[in-house]
């Protein structure tokens, strides 16, 4: 049986968050986007699994305003039967509360692969509907060298070097504004929405570091930019990136990405989470191929639903 607990008690049970979008501070920042925040735990003396979710329009959502949500847990190598029991109790809770639907997106495996595998198995066997998974991509920084593995990408990077491009981390507010504006223009060109304002990003800086980067030509003109989150568990998250019309023929993106991978490797991070290259499970072939030819590995980000038919 699962019970709802308040924020303080939940924090006492689960003091080490599994990823940035399940933290108390992040949920607090976004709580207005849900009608109610709930925290579910097992009705035992020492709960080992919990779920933080939002309720909106009669649906239980995890996440309710983030790329992914999922579960809190005490340890990754938990016995599978304990996860099975929690998922069956979770299903009973959803049906008893008569929520119209439940939508759950698990994090990529780079955050907790072992626990994820057992969750996917348990959710399927408990009768949750497995929606088409998203394809997500990530960089293993231990594998990054001083050049790309893919032949064309190596040549494009050499072209960027011949064009005397410059990579640097952005420091000034004016440069940050320009970097963000360049990304907005890039996304508009490809009909891709942008869901966060510059002010939103600056509010996130109260929670964890937000890095801005740029690539410029020898005259100092910005040709490409990127914005990344740093998370304590050896993972950085790619929020936005893009180039402009001047940067594209000069290979600004090829130059930007390898420099980013090397930058974070030097700062002792292990992975770069590049996010999904799909929309509702359908691949964006060009974007996916671009990531993979710039050192990325692709894997699945699982999604589940439970429609209440009562």
UniProtKB/TrEMBL annotation:
Gene3D superfamilies: 3.40.630.30
Superkingdom classification of source: Bacteria
SUPFAM superfamilies: Acyl-CoA N-acyltransferases (Nat) (SSF55729)
Name of this chain's protein: Acetyltransferase (GNAT) domain-containing protein
The organism's taxonomic lineage, starting at the top: Bacteria, Pseudomonadati, Bacteroidota, Bacteroidia, Marinilabiliales
Cross-referenced InterPro entries: Acyl_CoA_acyltransferase (IPR016181), PG_Glycine_Bridge_Synth (IPR050644)
């Amino acid at each position: 049986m699962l019970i709802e607990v308040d924020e303080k008690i939940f924090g006492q049970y689960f003091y080490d968050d599994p990823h940035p979008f399940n933290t108390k501070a992040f949920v607090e920042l976004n709580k207005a986007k849900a009608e109610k925040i709930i925290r579910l735990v097992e009705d035992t003396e020492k709960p080992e699994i919990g779920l933080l979710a939002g309720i909106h329009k009669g649906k239980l959502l995890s996440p309710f305003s983030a790329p992914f949500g999922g579960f809190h847990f005490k340890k990754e190598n938990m016995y599978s039967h304990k996860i099975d029991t929690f998922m069956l109790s979770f299903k009973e809770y959803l049906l008893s509360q008569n929520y119209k639907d439940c939508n759950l997106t698990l994090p990529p495996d780079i955050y907790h692969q072992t626990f994820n595998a057992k969750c996917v198995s348990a959710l399927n066997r408990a009768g949750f509907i497995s929606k088409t998974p998203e394809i997500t991509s990530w960089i293993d920084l231990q594998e990054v060298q001083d050049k790309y593995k893919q032949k064309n990408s190596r040549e494009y990077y050499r072209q960027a070097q011949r064009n005397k491009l410059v990579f640097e981390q952005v420091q000034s507010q004016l440069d940050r504004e320009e970097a963000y504006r360049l990304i907005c223009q890039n996304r508009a060109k490809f009909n891709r929405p942008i869901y966060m304002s510059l002010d939103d990003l600056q509010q996130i800086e109260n929670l964890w570091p937000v890095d801005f980067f740029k690539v410029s030509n020898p005259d100092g003109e910005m040709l490409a930019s990127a914005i990344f989150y740093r998370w304590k568990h050896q993972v950085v998250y790619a929020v936005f990136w893009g180039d402009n019309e001047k940067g594209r023929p000069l290979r600004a993106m090829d130059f930007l990405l390898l420099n980013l991978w090397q930058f974070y490797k030097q700062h002792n991070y292990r992975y770069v989470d590049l996010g999904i290259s799909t929309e509702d499970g359908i691949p964006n072939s060009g974007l996916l191929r671009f990531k993979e030819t710039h050192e990325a590995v692709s894997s699945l980000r699982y999604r589940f639903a439970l429609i209440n038919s009562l």
